[in-house]
Design brief:
Structural class: alpha+beta
Radius of gyration: 38 Å
InterPro entries: Mdm31/Mdm32
Largest sheet: 14 strands, mixed
Number of helices: 16
Protein name: Mitochondrial distribution and morphology protein 31
Number of strands: 16
Pfam family, one: MDM31_MDM32
Subcellular location: Mitochondrion inner membrane
Keywords: Membrane, Mitochondrion, Mitochondrion inner membrane, Transit peptide, Transmembrane, Transmembrane helix
């Protein structure tokens, strides 16, 4: 009797009450793991035995269900990895592509010679560099270029660390060019942001950036002071100014401008970054930026020592920059700071302070600036910017929502005291309805977007500005100071001549410094899709108020001079009459 017949005989005599698993364990003729390993003919078969033994505990071959389960687990695991750990997935993918690319270059004979001299700043032309730059720059509006040997990042503190990265603007925009070199660029990736169309990059940290920005704006032609025949119309601010009008006659200046002017202002909006791109936490350290406008010979220098932004959206660059946690830096070697105002109220007030800035450097850098007639002197700026309250983290949570509060109230009502069955059913129905409403409100994204847009249309920005001029000297410029938001000058040629004469007549005493205060209100939506604060109507409104206050000082000074001359003349006449009367009496 062979082995197979003995197994059949033993199984036919076992009692029917035994389970299949129990009978399998009591089977004395069932081969053990050691017997299977002894009968294995190769290392591969032993490897399969080690895998199959704890899973199936038998020697049957893998079925289609096993392979499908393994494939499903592999696919779902990678999907979860991409969604939850996008940064680490990107790191592993880049290293895998680099390994395959190196192996392919080795077998094809295209690998670079190690002894060949390579420029230290040569562009990396590998497939990985092209793929990484294209994917990371997708939707950003600018291109990331990696130097040779710097395309592979390091993983530090949960962020991808790149070194020697260049940022180049798109060649399609002829009026804007940017070239930046970053010593160290750290970033995290987010699949959720990419799926929502807000870009793949989430948090960004920049160290040692040196950037050059070339900006050209030919939309507004300058007005020469030599070609003016008569009086010119001046700017009437398109924002609501509290210093231009008194408290009893606050006027909104939108009614004073034509539709063509407002349309031209809207068409000149040119954001630096794609409007749909959004970044999370942005930190910038030890960076230097040079800005050239309209072929200027001297750049406008901006140094950033430390910048901490909670968010940075492509269509709200100005709002997010002034809503920073803190920013410290220098503008033309003059220190500036941006920080939250230390108040005990819930208002979101940001303070901007700029120390004594040299007005001569600004006039030389840009002869068409808004204060191009000032050739010497200093200016200090202190501004309190009241921005709309941003949505906090707890505000959007489920436990602080109105729907959750409704569910909680229904739950307390249902469990507060015993009631009738009918009342209990009503309470349960109310609780179920509240829970369904909470789930619906949680996942209703479209309505939240519409309500946010409606809220932005009704939100305003209030700016209180104090400007102090010290020891300024003026001369007649070649062009009238123009507003960026409209093709109108801030002041007429006649008033500009009077202003230059008034400024030069001031003494150099500290008490003769000019202090100007103004308050301007602007819609929050009018600050969107702009990357330059000088292009906003709120900036032109502040400058227009400064000119109005200066012209008021001129009128007051002229009135003072007339009063002094009148008093002097009256005193002279009175003294002459007195002497004449005394002579007659004598």
């Amino acid at each position: 009797m062979n082995k197979k017949q003995l197994q059949t005989l033993w199984r036919s005599q076992r009692p029917f009450s035994y389970s299949a698993s129990r009978a399998k364990d009591l089977d004395p003729l069932r081969p053990t793991k050691s017997q299977l390993l002894e009968g294995a003919s190769s290392k591969l078969s032993r490897f399969w035995i080690h895998i199959k033994w704890p899973l199936t505990r038998n020697n049957r071959p893998f079925s289609i269900d096993d392979f499908s389960a393994f494939a499903s687990w592999l696919v779902m695991g990678n999907i979860l990895w991409i969604v939850l750990g996008t940064t680490t997935f990107g790191l592993v993918t880049m290293y895998s592509i680099h390994t395959f690319d190196t192996f392919w270059n080795t077998i094809s004979g295209d690998e670079d010679d190690d002894n060949e001299d390579v420029a230290p700043q040569a562009k990396d032309k590998t497939f990985l560099s092209y793929l990484a730059g294209s994917i990371l720059s997708q939707g950003f509006g600018m291109r990331l270029v990696f130097e040779k040997g710097s395309v592979l990042p390091e993983l530090s503190d949960g962020m991808l660390k790149f070194r020697n990265v260049k940022v180049v603007s798109s060649e399609r925009d002829e009026n804007f060019r940017i070239f930046a070199k970053i010593q160290e660029l750290n970033m995290t990736l987010s699949f959720k942001k990419w799926y929502e169309g807000n870009g793949l990059i989430d948090d960004v940290e920049i160290f040692g950036m040196h950037a050059k920005v070339l900006r050209k704006d030919d939309s507004l032609a300058p007005i020469s002071t030599e070609d003016i025949a008569g009086d010119q119309n001046t700017l009437s601010s398109m924002a609501m100014s509290m210093s231009k009008y008194d408290t009893h006659n606050i006027h909104n200046d939108f009614s004073e401008h034509k539709y063509e002017e407002l349309k031209a202002v809207a068409q000149r909006k040119s954001p630096l970054v794609s409007p749909n791109y959004q970044l999370g936490h942005v930190r910038v350290h030890d960076s230097f930026i040079e800005i050239f406008e309209n072929h200027d010979t001297m750049p406008f220098k901006v140094t950033i020592f430390n910048c901490d932004l909670p968010q940075f959206r492509g269509d709200r660059l100005i709002v997010d920059f002034f809503n920073a946690n803190n920013v410290t830096g220098a503008v033309n070697n003059s220190m500036f700071t941006i920080h939250k105002h230390q108040t005990f109220t819930d208002e979101n007030v940001v303070r901007f302070k700029l120390d004594s800035i040299d007005m001569e450097s600004i006039s030389k850098a840009n002869p068409q600036s808004k204060f191009n007639w000032i050739v010497n002197g200093k200016a200090e700026i202190l501004a309190d910017i009241r921005l709309p309250e941003t949505k906090s983290k707890d505000e959007g949570s489920f436990f602080s929502s109105i729907s959750f509060q409704q569910v909680w109230n229904d739950l307390k009502t249902a469990t507060s005291s015993p009631r009738d069955a009918a009342e209990g059913d009503d309470s349960n129905d109310s609780l179920i309805k509240g829970a369904i409403a909470a789930i619906y409100e949680t996942f209703r994204k479209n309505k939240e977007t519409k309500s946010e847009d409606l809220r932005n249309e009704n939100e305003y920005v209030i700016v209180n500005v104090k400007v102090k001029f010290k020891n300024i000297k003026a001369t007649m410029p070649k062009h009238l100071p123009m507003a960026t938001s409209t093709a109108l000058p801030f002041v007429t040629l006649h008033n500009l001549r009077a202003l230059v004469g008034f400024v030069n007549s001031l003494e150099k005493d500290k008490s003769d410094s000019i202090l100007i205060k103004t308050t301007v209100i602007e819609k929050l939506a009018d600050l969107y899709n702009l990357d330059n604060i000088t292009q906003t109507r709120i900036f032109d409104a502040i400058v227009a108020d400064i000119y109005d206050d200066l012209l008021k000082d001129i009128k007051l000074d002229e009135k003072r001079i007339l009063e002094e001359k009148a008093n002097s003349w009256s005193h002279t006449v009175a003294s002459q009459l007195l002497l004449l009367g005394l002579g007659v009496l004598a």
